[in-house]
Amino acid sequence: MQHSQLFRSLALLAALAAPLHAQDSGSDTQETRYMGRAFVFEADFDFARRAGWVAPDATDAELAESMEATLLMRLRRTGRFVESRVLVEGDNRFAVLFVGRQDARIEEFLVAGLSFPGRVAYRVVAEESDLGGESTLAGERERLKAWTGAHPGEPVQLFREVPRDAGGPHAALEWTLSKDGDDVDGAYPLLAEPSFPLIDADIPVGRIFAVDEAEEGAAEKSMSLRFELKDDAKQRLADFGAAHAARRCVAVVDDRVVDVRDDSASFFAEPYGVRAGWTFDEARSKMMAISGGRLDAPLTFVEFSKRELPHVKRRGAE
User: Per-residue b/e over 174-200, b at no fewer than 16 CB within 10 Å?
Assistant: First the structure.
């Protein structure tokens, strides 16, 4: 479901936080258990392993524990949802609970900010010479087109696992779609290695910003992200840029090429950032996702419901 459709659906939902009262046996005190509003998501751990997001031998239990911690960190980093909870339900389902109601716009922000993978990396665009004379970029694109034609609806990321003799890609390549669409004619051939993944630990807390880069009369989608980096991350990024100074580089966010520059060196010098052309709401949700940490697996919104909030209790005399 597209986020815009999901947001409209959420605006129609109404669920008030309601306390439940239970008398303690043999006690003069009353316990109030609060019902919270729950955003329920499902994670696709199989995709994460197949697409190379995590190690092939990562277990569901390990991934669930990591996802729970990341979702909670995203909430904490906002500074607003300190009474929120994350419940792991079953093998791959997560219920994110809140006390009380949020307005529709905040709900939209939360669903997007929690579900965006938050995966940012600087990557190097492949050239013909990277194929060692074994193939051509045009020939490799034809392989990609043949595979996507035979597997409609399959994510392009899974093309990487197709064996070469079964029509798969050259070992040096990973194909990545543009943010502008799903047409593989516009996909970018990126080197499988090296890359520079940007993680939340590289950015000082609170030092990522949404910036409006629109010129007068520009379209609505003009928001970009800027961020500061810790000293060790600055040095590592500078070393990566120096090693690939003669190459074309791009910024990839959530498996989409979002920033392509004529001057790739500008990626590796201050002010750091990603010129993405998002709306304000998109940029704000990406900020929440990136600052709280990258998810180990993609999340899909499943339902909006109620859950009892654990550890949010109040006692008092009858």
Answer: bbbbbbeeeebeebbbbbbeeebebeb
Instruction: Compute the average pLDDT of residues 22-32.
Output: 45
**Is residue 30 very low, low, confident or very high in pLDDT (cuts 50, 70, 90)?**
very low
3-class DSSP assignment, residue 16: coil
Task: For residue 136, give the 3-state DSSP assignment.
Answer: coil
Question: What's the start-to-end Cα distance of the chain, in Å?
Answer: 48
| Confidence bin at 24 (pLDDT 50/70/90) | very low
| pLDDT of amino acid 80 | 74
| Cβ neighbours, 10 Å, residue 109 | 18
The ranges of the chain annotated as CATH 3.30.70.3400 are 3-117+295-317
Most confident option among 23-37, 219-233, 256-270: 256-270
Asked if residues 300 and 91 have their Cβ atoms less than 8 Å apart, the reply is no
> Three-state secondary structure along 125-141?
ECCHHHHCCCCCHHHHH
The DSSP call for residue 295 is -
Closest CA to 144 of 113, 173, 102, 114: 173
- Write the class of the CATH domain 3-117+295-317: alpha beta
CATH number for domain 120-291, candidates 3.30.1360.200, 2.60.34.10, 3.30.1330.40, 3.40.50.1360: 3.30.1360.200
Strand partners, 33: 20, 313
The reported pTM is 0.82
Strand (E) or helix (H) holding 122: strand 120-125
